[in-house]
Amino acid sequence: MADALTPITSRCQFGRTMRDTHFMLAPTYTPLNHGSFGTYPKPVQKRLHECQTLSEARPDNFQRYDYPVMLDRSRAAMASFLNVPVDEVVFVPNATTAINVVLENLRFKKGEVILHLSTLYGSVAKMIEYIHETRGVESVNVAVEYPIDDDVLVSRFQTAINDVKVGKRRRVGVAIFDTISSLPGVRVPWERLVEVCREENVLSLVDGAHGVGQIDLGLSKVQPDFFTSNCHKWLYVPRACAVFHVPRRNQHLIRTSLPTSHGFVPRPRGPGHEIMNPLMKDASSTSPFALLFEFVATLDVSPYLCIEEALRFRREVCGGEEKIMRYCEEISSEAGRQAAKILGTGVMENGTKMLTKCAFTNVRLPLEIGDGREQIPEKDMYLVAVWMTAMLVRESDIYSPVFFHARRFWTRLSGQVYLDLGDFEKGARALKTLCERAKSGEYLQQKARL
């Protein structure tokens, strides 16, 4: 089995030099939105192709014998990176899948509800609605408008848990919240929310989609009940790959993967109900939880096998996690200040300056729709944001998401090692022009182009 990692020995400056030397971005493209889909460097691409080639050279041999061994190596590397036991770590295609797994596996008792912040990711909100439609589980939405201080958010979260318990024979079964929310892209005091959940005997389900590779997580100290994070966003792993961490104390709650596959162990039902596993292996050294997610139907598992190469690149080329995170946070913050100056607005921040303790900065756009005498429906504001985002990339080859929050328009800037300040200045000037066009109503004339 050819499984040697690509040697990496050189270091490289961040910014344009990093981009030109190690990344595959189109020369004219200005990517100010690393947070949505990420990207990965050339050495990781080489590793990806090596694994795909191994799989195609001997498909059965790879899937049945080589892949499980290689996967265990990736799991061990990820567990070491997160500082958690290896038998608590598996891979799934994305954070959405992991959150689905938890919600589908939990057996909600009568009166138990799902608690979440109003800024949760859209697909997670739809999962909660699906659970309500199919199982009748109610949910409680904690309203959050940014900017908000961490103390206020935590207090509001605590109050919501208490309110659920008052006089209605209800309790919160599980609370879902982000490490860093998507839109707006701000750091959430998730560590404190986990502590509140622990004190209130509520399960904590942390959507860390933007966490791993962007901030220091400290999972072994925080100890959430369930945690997931996309490795293909900030860790430089190819799509699609996410880590799913479930401490031993909660693994009994996860009975099946999604879809249910060969790792599922049915409860005994007697003769005639035995099910043969065509991928049987020696499971003595692998936990039942890990086996549950080892082979989940047939898919390209090559991204799961790129963890070591991605971590090696971050360590040997970029200089390690602290250097990466510091650069991404600092350039994001400075880019936000410069963009706000160009736009004549400001950045989204709270009194303790905690919202921007990550690689995101949200900049307000100089845009108001309507004459102020009537309330414009939020769906129309959404249309403006969609139009501006589309025009920005189609006309200028710049991608920076525009969104509407707290009755204002914003753009979310992602700091990354392959960007320099000139990239953000270019984006801000293009957005300023688009704001003027939006004020004129041009977005109404071009609905068909969206």
Automatic annotation (TrEMBL):
Alphabetized Gene3D superfamilies for the sequence: Type I PLP-dependent aspartate aminotransferase-like (Major domain)
Domain Aminotransferase class V: 72-244
Signal sequence interval, chain numbering: none
InterPro entries the UniProt entry points to: Aminotrans_V_dom, PyrdxlP-dep_Trfase, PyrdxlP-dep_Trfase_major
Coiled coil: none
Keyword vocabulary terms for this entry: Pyridoxal phosphate
Keyword Transit peptide: no
The organism's place on the tree of life at top rank: Eukaryota
UniProt name for this protein: Aminotransferase class V domain-containing protein
Species annotation: Letharia lupina
Lineage of origin: Eukaryota, Fungi, Dikarya, Ascomycota, Pezizomycotina
